């Protein structure tokens, strides 16, 4: 079954510093019928305004994946140490026993657009750790590349969960294929652009769950350049 989660159906949080669209229930947005998929708990499509910063975040026992689409994010912890995350990098925070940090937009004129993804871990109360890895754009261009996994295989960033995230940057009229694994749940999220998934048009912000399907998923580029993710998750019901 292919089930569309249209971008207009997402929940929203809007503050003086941030606009966030939530594909699943998160903070002020609550829908008891949309709590996540398997171990995937949040896909937040965030825009952090120029020179803005988030509130101080205190998070434990969560795998937090951040992907910058435009701009950059500066991270600061309680020791005032800072790190800059850019679109060529993937970041994972395994928050474990707990982390406290803030996110800043270092630009005084440009928004930062980024996705923040929360996945439940299979190990609790570990020592918190940050992991980053840079990937050249060519790794994703008109192909599907594994970037996150529970094993760290194929040069992916390792997380504490049996979950995989794949990324692709697809040009117009190009086609990629994804073999749907048995007894798993998939989620497809379009970050930028527009794609055709087995004759379903998805635009930026749209998501789609794929459950109980077998065979090959065909994905065609519609916009000049589209950026999308595929999540391969355990077959759990929440």
Summarize the structure.
The chain is mostly beta strands and 238 residues long. It has strands spanning 2-5, 11-14, 18-22, 40-48, 57-59, 63-70, 73-77, 82-85, 89-94, 99-104, 112-119, 129-134, 145-149, 157-158, 164-171, 175-180, 184-192, 194-197, 200-203, 207-211, 215-221, 225-234.
Summary keywords:
seven-stranded antiparallel β-sheet; seven-stranded mixed β-sheet; Jelly Rolls; globular; 238 residues; 2 domains
Structural summary, described in words:
The chain has 238 residues and is an all-beta fold. The protein folds into 2 domains: 7-134, Sandwich (Jelly Rolls), CATH 2.60.120; 137-234, Jelly Rolls, CATH 2.60.120. Helices cover 0% and strands 54% of the residues. It contains no helices and 22 strands. The strands form 4 sheets. The protein has a 7-stranded mixed sheet, with no helix packed on it. It has a 7-stranded antiparallel sheet with strand order 2-3-4-11-6-9-12, with no helix packed on it. The radius of gyration is 17 Å and the shape is globular. The protein starts with a strand and ends with a strand. The model has no long low-confidence stretch (mean pLDDT 94).
Helix content: under 10%
CATH superfamily of the largest domain: Jelly Rolls
The CATH architecture category of the largest domain equals Sandwich
Mean pLDDT score, rounded? 94
Number of strand segments: 22
Task: Kindly name the structural category.
Answer: mainly beta
**Which runs of at least 5 residues are low in confidence (pLDDT < 50)?**
none
Q: Largest sheet, if any?
A: 7 strands, mixed
From the structure provided, what is the oligomeric state, counting identical versus distinct chains? Answer: single chain
Q: What is the CATH fold-level name of the largest domain? A: Jelly Rolls
Span between termini: 17 Å
């Amino acid at each position: 079954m292919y089930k569309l989660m249209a971008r207009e159906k997402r929940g929203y949080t809007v503050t003086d510093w941030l606009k966030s669209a939530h594909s699943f229930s998160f903070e002020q947005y609550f829908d008891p019928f949309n709590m996540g998929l398997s171990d995937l708990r949040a896909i937040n499509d965030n825009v952090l305004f120029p020179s803005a910063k988030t509130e101080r975040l205190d998070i434990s026992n969560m795998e937090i994946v951040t992907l910058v689409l435009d701009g950059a994010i500066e991270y600061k912890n309680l020791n005032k140490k800072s790190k800059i995350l850019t679109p060529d990098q993937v970041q994972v925070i395994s928050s474990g026993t707990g982390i406290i940090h803030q996110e800043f937009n270092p630009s005084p004129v440009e928004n930062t657009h980024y996705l923040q993804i929360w996945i439940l871990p299979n190990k609790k109360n570990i020592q918190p750790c940050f992991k980053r890895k840079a990937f050249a754009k060519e790794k994703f261009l008109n192909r599907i590349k594994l970037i996150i996994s529970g094993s760290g295989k194929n040069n992916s960033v390792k997380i504490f969960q049996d979950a995989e995230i794949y990324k692709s940057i697809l040009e117009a009229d190009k086609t990629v294929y994804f073999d749907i694994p048995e007894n798993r749940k998939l989620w497809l999220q379009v970050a930028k652009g527009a794609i055709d998934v087995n004759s379903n048009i998805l635009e930026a912000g749209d998501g789609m769950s794929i459950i109980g399907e077998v065979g090959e998923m065909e994905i065609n580029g519609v916009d000049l350049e589209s950026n999308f993710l595929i999540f391969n998750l355990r077959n759990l019901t929440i």
